[in-house]
């Protein structure tokens, strides 16, 4: 499994294991559960405050404010300063190098199969 390390924390990438065990629908369901744990219940998005408050539930209590802001910024495609459910799911996939490699491989295989028929 892939790991990345910064000065404050170690990230163990369990997403590929979850994908293999749960399948696609199960993985998306678990990502949605994670989103629901981290989101601001009133706003329906993950804000800096909700991420800081709820990150300990996922074992991320050691992340600095800068780390948390960086995560939000990395996934915030619409620039509103928060993560909606789609942005969160995309970010989780992007942060999993092994899963991204597997997805790239499957996409290439599907495209090759599609164009093989022409």
From TrEMBL:
Residue ranges that the Swiss-Prot or TrEMBL entry lists as coiled coil: none
Molecular-function GO term, any one: calcium ion binding
SUPFAM superfamilies in UniProt: EF-hand
Record-annotated EF-hand domain positions: 63-98
UniProtKB keywords: Calcium
PANTHER family assigned to the protein according to its UniProt record, in alphabetical order: CALCIUM-BINDING PROTEIN KIC, OS06G0683400 PROTEIN
UniProt-recorded name of the protein: EF-hand domain-containing protein
The organism of origin for this protein: Salix dunnii
